[in-house]
Design goal:
30% of the residues lie in helices and 28% in strands. The protein has helices at 40-43, 53-74, 79-93, and strands at 2-6, 12-15, 20-23, 27-31, 47-49, 101-104, 115-117, 122-126, 130-134. Strands 2-1-9 form a 3-stranded antiparallel sheet, with no helix packed on it. Strands 3-4-8 form a 3-stranded antiparallel sheet, with no helix packed on it. The longest helix has 22 residues, at 53-74. The chain is globular, with a radius of gyration of 14 Å.
Length: 135
């Protein structure tokens, strides 16, 4: 089984037991329910948090800088795709951001991944902000 960890905090965020697909080379769209019926938020102890449009953008800009620095050191060819595709995704969905729920990993560290939940069926994780590892 692969566990996807936040590259900043090291928090476990989801596993390959949850069906997911890549969207726009920016995010992983992960099903809220695993193949064996478990709930993503409960199984990975994701912590609810709140953002309005302004605070989400501020957090995203800070997060983008930290992930870009991480990528410069670990995978330099990914910096440009991360920056371009994640910003395009945010711009495309920003008008609906007020309807999203937000979660952090179990550590509650806001400088790490903020998981976006647009509806009750999927959660969105920044593709370049997670690293798979064998459990």
């Amino acid at each position: 089984m692969l566990i996807y960890k936040d590259v900043i905090t090291g928090d476990n965020l989801f596993s390959d037991q949850y069906p997911f697909k890549e969207v726009g080379d920016a995010v992983y769209e992960v099903s809220f329910t695993s193949v064996d019926g478990k709930n993503l938020v409960e199984e990975f102890n994701l912590q609810p948090t709140f953002f309005d449009k302004k605070s989400f953008l501020e957090n995203f800009r800070s997060y983008g800088l930290v992930v870009s620095k991480y990528l410069e050191e670990s995978n330099p060819d990914s910096v440009r795709p991360f920056q371009a595709n994640s910003m395009a995704y945010v711009k495309e969905h920003l008008q609906n951001i007020k309807d999203f729920e937000f979660y952090t990993g179990p550590s509650g560290i806001l400088e790490g991944m903020v998981v976006m939940v647009p509806d009750e069926e999927v959660a969105l994780f920044w593709k370049y902000g997670v690293q798979p590892s064998e459990s």
